[in-house]
Amino acid sequence: MSSDQKRANYWYFSQYAGLDFNAGSPVALTDGALATRDGCSTIADQEGKLLFYTDGVTVWNRLHQPMPNGTDLWGSYSSTQSALIVPKPGSSSLYYIFTTDSQADYPNYRPELHNCACLAYSIVDLSKADGLGEVVEKNTILYAPTTEKIAATLHANGRDVWVVSHQWNSDAFFAYLVTQDGISEQPVISRAGVVHQGRQEANGNARGQMKLSPNGSRLALVMEESGSEVFDFDNSAGTVSRAISILDNALLFAYSGVEFSPNSQLLYFTAVISEVDQPPYLIMQLDLAARTAEAIKQSRVIVGRYVRGIDDLQLGPDGKIYAATYLSDSLGVVEHPNRPGPSCNYRNDGLYLLGRSPNGGLPNFISSYLLPPDPVLEMPNVFTPNGDGYNPRFVPIRRQRVESASLTICNRWGQTLCRTDDLEKGWDGGESPAGVYYWLVRYRGSNGRLATQKGTLTLLR
């Protein structure tokens, strides 16, 4: 696991719920001070040790105490993505907390009041308060009005961070670049997709999650009343383009959560469907690797249903996607989110929270923290299918985060002797005599990256 991934190892969310991923599999926690309806954010250091967390209104330190000056931030308990914590590049102590307010008070927008429907930021300095942190700058407005959507990913340089939000009553995305010099004064503005606006004087379309893919190449969002869209994102320039409307089924409504698979090729979202005699709350999957926009739309498949409500989705450091479910003491879990269709294995009661309720909201992270490391594959250079049971097959010595692979074995004349997609089965040598042979492996990692390895092997009998 990379050091950046460990920054997402602690989660505090909903009604005093928490998770610790440092052991690999999540361990439920009950020591958190956060109780909120929707958005929140948590940050750990590069070793996976908790630093602080927030619901966008209050900031708690690692001892679960409110930080000095750490109250009355301009997020909201009912904002979908109320907060997002971003470390300042090049600093070991400074962190930005970006906040979005609830849209409920947007018609009465006044910048001097808490409810201002704005994107704002505050700054935490962890060198203060004996290393427990203090909020040293609070509620600096970047722009208004905004929706309740906010997401972030690393710049292509691997150091700086793009923070992306969406303007209300507009089709504009605002991307701010966070560098060692601070937050860019002027955002990159992209106009793509539909206008985010209310219906019948309502503002439900301001709600719903927005996510950037783990590899930083895609952006997806849901609008509570109007559906969902997916876009290309350029993590060098900060631009959003090529909108695809992926939900246009009149039976679907009340969209809420969205998340990418670890390999960034599958998209999951939650919605409600008006079907008779069926659980109305759905988790659906789309194949973003489909060749055309229409093919992406047609790839839609239901992978889970629930009778009581499914809200936010969030990819975890363990490569699973977690779903916030209502009236429950467990999180839903997509066990294998890189697998297409029902084979992804969604379970409603996937992770017990020790009596805590997920209640709708999950923490928001820089998406790059959840990108799996590159795959590792190591093949031997000799094997001995001589009947003694020792080293009888040509199989990997080491295999990590390899999702699929194909192995080809050829002799010195270029004749193919073996071709298999089962690396663990490998090659038993068949009737081939002792000698030198050539192998080629093409494989895909759990992060979606393709790789090729080749070499020679010696068969001894």
UniProtKB/TrEMBL annotation:
SUPFAM superfamilies for the chain: DPP6 N-terminal domain-like
Residues spanning the signal sequence: none
Superkingdom classification of source: Bacteria
Coiled coil, from the record: none
Protein's recorded name: Gliding motility-associated C-terminal domain-containing protein
